DNA sequence: AGTTTATTTAGAATAATTCTTGATAAGCTT
DNA sequence: AAGCTTATCAAGAATTATTCTAAATAAACT
């Protein structure tokens, strides 16, 4: 028994529907890239996605991974996430959320929007602007690194951060 | 009569103070770069700063402009602003604020934080994270472009956007 | 089966930024 | 002032993430 088999019905649109809606095809490569993203709740770079997909599809090229990520992003079924000048990361969470970039372990975690809140609640946007998109990123320490830091730092046991700190 | 002549006193710290505080010097190049930013309330790229400074200091190199912008940023007297994969822009406004990137005219405008508001008001940050920085960017149409768009679009007079739209 | 169109791929190209290296200049020390 | 040390600058090379090009492949359509 297969669920969500959007042949004629109109349940919530699947990734395939979004792709088809643009006259594009859900190819093996695109699905593999999408699955690599859905598989873990992290935010891999294009190269990391490439490495993951390659284990299942050894002949895929990096250019194709870039192409697929762009296509999936354009179709609105994944999101590209940028922070400073670092390589783009990709995220399958379509809910409105911000990102915390941990400078301790290099991880990126989703920060949900509180219910019934809007960015306009805290930002003084002129009323006549039209906003299409907004992106929010925090930099700091994730819960794990923050507590480790609070406990370990007193005896001055500093662990090397994963991020470049000149 | 010169104002803010921080020789021995302790008025609010000048840009020079921040530089000196790091054992660095406020050179002609650094001041020229800083002045180029302060001169206009926009958000130029490194190359745009380079072009502005070059009119007053024809021998300055682009590498030096990059160096100066990095130094000024590290000293906390200007801010680097990033949006998607576009070239970094620089901003002399040290108040906490977001940015609206207008896809009509390519301008970047400051969006102030409403008084007595904090990002935590709308974002559900775990309590044990430690946040060092946060960056917020909106994409859309600035007031000028939004009103022009609302008025002109009906008779389908679309003007070419300054941003690449494939 | 033949035609059109989308997709993939490898490699070249691009563009922003950073790095390297040898001047040049500034600040101290004697 | 002369010498020493360190910071800064400048030109060009190098890096790196990403995009582009062109040819091969595959799917959809007639
Ligand atoms: Mn996310
Ligand atoms: Mn600004
Ligand atoms: Zn962490
Ligand atoms: Zn505008």
Question: Your description of this structure?
Answer:
- Chains A, B: One of its GO terms (molecular function) is zinc ion binding.
- Chains A, B: Keywords: DNA-binding, Iron, Metal-binding, Repressor, Transcription, Transcription regulation, Zinc.
- The structure is a homodimer of 166-residue chains.
- In chain A, helix 2 (28-39) crosses helix 4 and helix 3 (46-56) packs across helix 4.
- By secondary structure, chain A is of the alpha+beta class.
- Chain A has five helices and five strands.
- The first copy, chain A, folds into two domains: 1-94, Arc Repressor Mutant, subunit A; 96-166, Dna Ligase, domain 1 (2-Layer Sandwich), CATH 3.30.1490.
- The model of chain A is unreliable at 1-9 and 156-166 (pLDDT under 50).
- Chain A starts with 14 loop residues before the first helix and ends in a 14-residue tail after the last helix.
- In chain A, a hairpin with a 7-residue loop joins strand 1 (79-81) and strand 2 (89-91).
- A three-stranded mixed beta sheet of chain A has the order 4-3-5.
- Chain A has helices at 15-21, 28-39, 46-56, 62-74, 143-152, and strands spanning 79-81, 89-91, 97-102, 108-112, 130-141.
- Chain A binds chain B through residues 80, 82-85, 88, 98, 100, 103, 111-114, 117-119, 121-126, 128-143, 146-147, 149, and chain B through 80, 82-85, 88, 98, 100, 103, 111-114, 117-119, 121-126, 128-143, 146-147, 149.
- The complex binds manganese (II) ion (2 copies) and zinc ion (2 copies).
- One manganese (II) ion is lined by residues 43, 81, 91, 93, 97, 99, 110 of chain B.
- The site of one zinc ion has 8 residues of chain B, from helix 5.
- The structure holds a DNA duplex (30 and 30 nucleotides).
